Amino acid sequence: MKTPLTGILPVAPTPFLDDGTIDQEGMTRVLDCLIDQGVDAICILANYSEQFVLSDEERRVLTRLCLEHVAGRVPVIVTISHFSTQVVVDRAREAQTLGASMLMMMPPYHGVGLVPPPEMIFEHFAMVSDAISIPIMIQDAPLSGVTLPVPLLVKMAKEIENVSYFKMETPFAADKLAALIEAGGDDIIGPFDGEEAVTLLADLDAGCTGTMTSGMFAEKIRPIVTHYLAGDKDAALAQWTRCMPLINHENRQCGLRACKVVYKEGGVIKSDHVRHPLKPMTDRTRARLLQLASDLDIMALSWGK
């Protein structure tokens, strides 16, 4: 990529059929729906893609399928997180070979009792960087249980060639983003937030230049970022205010199931199945989700009809 990514880089859900098998045709429709929403890039195989319930072979199939189907229409970010450094290096090489524009990875972890020390976390990312030549986004999220202090993140940005993007999802993300940007300077090319944009306005105030949300309604969230970066903070606030009821419901009540429910309702995919031990959304939560999505007239609700 010759210019830094900004804007919205949503996570694509992985569609399954009702029997739990991967819906490959549905996956292509997910990608097309996201592109029609005007996204700036697409992230695949992330936590909101249910990467933790996919086999290695399913990952390989999906990586190839997604990159071949998108075919350069937008950049594709491939998530490669794993505790094993060798596995991550192998995933990184494969993703780049198939055409990924960027990689995203969490620090190595395997429960709170198996977290490497900071120097090994540094080496984990450095060994991936040495194996590829595309940007790496570090995902700093509570899910891992790994603390990534700002000095360590800055050290990685300055000393590991391809580490230049950061997705901040920790509590008080805005303060951490501001500290990271101040300490890292020009080495922080892409400071992003996540968590379905629930803290987006504060994170933009802190200096972030984009967001990685779910794929549910990117066309409504993207203008928050573009208005803000263009200097129209009032328009950004107004749009964020309009989106917040749905953002909040997704973030606090639905999780990764929200996008699938909406995509099924809108004919993008055939099933909103999530693999066990995840469980389906309750009828109560689903009804409120679809009401809020309908009130906002999001594209995905009608895209496949």
Describe this structure in words.
The protein is of the alpha/beta class and 305 residues long. It has a single domain, classed as Alpha-Beta Barrel (TIM Barrel). Helix content is 46%, strand content 10%. It is built from 11 helices and 8 strands. It has an 8-stranded parallel sheet with strand order 1-8-7-6-5-4-3-2. Helix 2 (56-70) links the parallel strand 2 and strand 3 (76-79). Helix 10 (257-265) crosses helix 11 (283-295). The longest helix has 22 residues, at 233-254. It is globular, with a radius of gyration of 18 Å. It starts with 6 loop residues before the first strand and ends in a 10-residue tail after the last helix.
Q: What's a quick, concise take on this entry?
A:
This protein has 305 residues and is α/β, with parallel strands linked by helices. The chain is built from 11 helices and 8 strands. It has a single domain, classed as TIM Barrel, CATH 3.20.20.
